[in-house]
Specification:
Radius of gyration: 21 Å
Number of strands: 17
Strand content: 15-25%
Shape: globular
Structural class: alpha/beta
Largest sheet: 8 strands, parallel
Number of helices: 14
Helix content: 25-40%
């Protein structure tokens, strides 16, 4: 990390004290080292001081809610392809790579199997090998900056189990309603019922709405909660991926006052969209999106920290707007500091909560 006041401040906090912080949202648990959306991953996030834990919510064939990052990621996040009977139910069966360069493929969805069948699977580190000619090779695709050390047999979690688990820990929730990858209605199951079922789980468990940040990339889900479950809708998070192209970024920025007028209170773009380089000083400063959100009275949550590889070559997707000034791993704290002190984010999703908990404890967040 570059020498300076930020490094000095962080070094002064090396002995703590460290505390649980609601600033820290555990993204999928702690998937930098643990299989995502498993009891083990959530438990690790808890131990690292995350104040809220995320369950990405998908539905099974029997319309039960479970925790998976995508409806159709079982082939890369679980051992389903090694379970012959269940693998036969996958939307797309495993096809090996060919000599002419065609990549190996498979597609297995939560909606292909029942909740009971889902619970028999083992969670693994997310990844696949596109050059695989066997199932075993295909499942061996963990990214270089992660590890398989704890990828033994992660315990998969239903949404109801997640609600009870987090409640027992006295922590808060950041569930995301995943966009379906099957045509809706699914066997009579509508998008509205899906959105309602997620909220109903918290109501049934007696969870106060102030402990829940319901999220979605689908605007209509957020509007549904605002209109039909206003106590939960007041803290609903609009996950904004429109910023991935220059045109989309401009349109998203321009739309913020209108979204605020419709009752949206919290926006959550990826964190690259909230910063830029000041050409005059060469420093990292708030972006146009960040300034427009503040002007519209919107709260900002962002994602996802510790999801990149090494930063000695300028970073990746999450650092794309500030890449010219990124040259070491410590620069992640430089960006985090700008997001907190200048942009004013209120919560940060991270794949390894300890990194953000350290900062949050050091700065009293």
């Amino acid at each position: 990390m570059d020498e300076g006041s930020l490094k000095t401040k962080l070094e002064s906090c090396s002995e703590g004290p460290f505390k649980v912080s609601d600033f820290v949202f555990a993204h999928r648990g702690a998937p930098l080292q643990f299989p995502e959306h498993t009891v083990e991953s959530y438990s690790a996030a808890r131990r690292m001081g995350a104040g809220a834990i995320e369950c990405d919510v998908a539905f099974t064939k029997d319309k039960q809610l479970v925790c998976r990052h995508a409806q159709c990621d079982l082939h890369t996040t679980t051992d389903i392809l090694n379970r012959t009977e269940l693998a036969s139910k996958c939307t797309t069966l495993f096809t090996p790579a060919t000599d002419n360069g065609t990549a190996a493929t498979a597609k297995c969805c939560t909606s292909d199997i029942t909740q009971a069948e889902f619970k028999t699977l083992c969670g693994k580190m997310d990844g696949s090998n596109p050059n695989a000619t066997t199932v075993e090779e295909y499942l061996d695709g963990t990214p270089y900056f992660r590890t398989d050390l704890y990828s033994t047999c992660g315990t998969l979690v239903t949404h109801n189990e997640y609600v009870d688990l987090v409640n027992g820990w006295g922590l808060k929730y950041s569930p995301e309603l995943k966009e379906p990858e099957v045509e809706m209605p699914f066997e009579g199951y509508t998008q509205e019922q899906y959105a309602q079922d997620m909220i109903d789980a918290y109501k049934k468990a007696g969870v106060d709405p102030s402990r829940v940040w319901a999220q979605s990339f689908v605007p209509d889900d957020v509007f549904y909660w605002i209109e039909n479950e206003p106590e939960f809708g007041a803290q609903a998070v609009y996950l904004d991926d429109r910023v991935d192209t220059p045109e989309g970024y401009a349109n998203a920025t321009a739309s913020l006052p209108g979204l605020a007028a419709r009752g949206v209170n919290i926006m959550a773009p990826p964190f690259f969209a909230l910063t830029k380089i000041d050409n005059a000083t060469g420093t990292i400063v708030p972006s146009e999106y960040a300034l427009a959100a503040k002007a519209a009275g919107l709260e900002l949550v962002t994602w996802s920290f510790e999801r990149s590889g090494w930063l000695n070559t300028g970073g990746d997707y999450y650092y794309q707007y500030v890449e010219p000034v990124i040259n070491n791993d410590g620069d992640m704290y430089t960006v985090l500091d700008v997001l907190v002190q200048q942009v004013g984010i209120t919560h940060f999703f991270t794949d390894w909560p300890a990194t953000v908990t350290y900062y949050a404890s050091c700065f009293g967040l």
